[in-house]
Amino acid sequence: MTITDEMPDEWVVDVVAAIERRGWTVKDAHESAITVQLGSREAAVLDADPGSVLVIGWTEQHGIDWGLSTDTGATVDQAQSMTEEAAPEAIAAAVDRLMLTGRPDARLVQHATPATAPSAACTCETAQPCGAIVPDTACPDHGARRARQM
């Protein structure tokens, strides 16, 4: 994959500033690519080889995309679409999600809401703040009991 030399200098500066405001370290930035340093946690999240960097660029195929490079950003084996939005803050948000979750896109996640009080079926001696959502094996009252109480 070749990243095209189309990124305007002013836009690159704005994207770098937005990424750095979120606490990430930009190793290099120019009209061809922006490279962001990966820490050990981010490398593990992205399943990256040691010494890899995150590369952000533009290609004709995807528009704004990202990939991993082991040669400081010169080549990227697989470009993947990052975001359809070209605003620097949107790109920085996608980088943030990518580094923390391994995915640049936002996903809606439905969360369970704990009951405010234990149900009548609960036989725990102490009502736990989880409202009986924590499985029995993790319950501080029961430990690894065979008979589930919650």
Labels describing this entry:
single chain, 150 residues, alpha+beta, 5-stranded antiparallel sheet, 3 helices, 22% helix, elongated, disordered C terminus
The total strand number stands at 5
Task: Report the helical percentage.
Answer: 10-25%
Order of helices and strands: HEEHEEEH
Number of helices: 3
> What strand order characterises the main sheet?
1-2-3-4-5
Find the structural class using helix and strand composition: alpha+beta
Strand content: 15-25%
Assembly state of the chains shown: single chain
Largest sheet: 5 strands, antiparallel
Shape: elongated
Distance between the termini: 54 Å
Mean of all residue-level pLDDT scores: 77
**Low-pLDDT ranges:** 109-113, 146-150
Task: Give the secondary structure arrangement, pairings included.
Blueprint: H1 9-21, E1 26-29, E2 34-37, H2 40-45, E3 53-59, E4 63-69, E5 80-81, H3 88-101
Antiparallel strand pairs: 1-2, 2-3, 3-4, 4-5
How would you characterize the overall build of this protein?
The protein has a 5-stranded antiparallel β-sheet, covered by helices on one side. With 150 residues, the protein is of the alpha+beta class. The protein has helices spanning 9-21, 40-45, 88-101; strands at 26-29, 34-37, 53-59, 63-69, 80-81. It has 3 helices and 5 strands. Helix 1 packs across helix 3 (88-101).
In a few lines, what is going on in this structure?
The protein is α+β, with helices and mostly antiparallel strands. The protein has helices at residues 9-21, 40-45, 88-101, and strands at residues 26-29, 34-37, 53-59, 63-69, 80-81.
